[in-house]
Amino acid sequence: MFKGLQKTKGADAGTADSLWSTELILDDDYTKKAIEFIRSARTEIRICAYAWRWYEYAPEDKIQQFNIAIVRAIQRGVTVRALVERINEGAVLQRHGIKVKALNTMRTLHTKAILVDDKTLILGSHNFTQRAQNDNFEMSIATQDFEACVLFESYFDRMWDANGKSIN
Asked: What is the CA radius of gyration of the chain?
């Protein structure tokens, strides 16, 4: 699944080697990779999205295939929670079974990330839009680095638990 595994020495010579994996995802490869991880989900998917579109009348569209994979995960019993920038996007997502919140803050939620089962994190510049897939130069990474996953989980949960309150 991951192209490269790297072994790195800890900063302290006495630290044990740690094995971590990461994959660079460029341009329109994003949806294919994201769908692979979504299909592997068993318990929960957390999503932060600046822009997320639903292309109901274009089922062949890559982003709509991503959306369909999310719906199928929900049908398998996977909980999907999403933080979005705009509540009007959230209404569409909620109709498909996604638990959605938009933060009520002066700050912009510009994060684009997916955490699958607290063990695989996809983080980068990709929005969930046709433009991001077809027109833009985009880059994201997928990692199973434990510390990165835990930090993102904490970040997401802090915003989620604020329930519309400003996050400082």
From this structure: 16
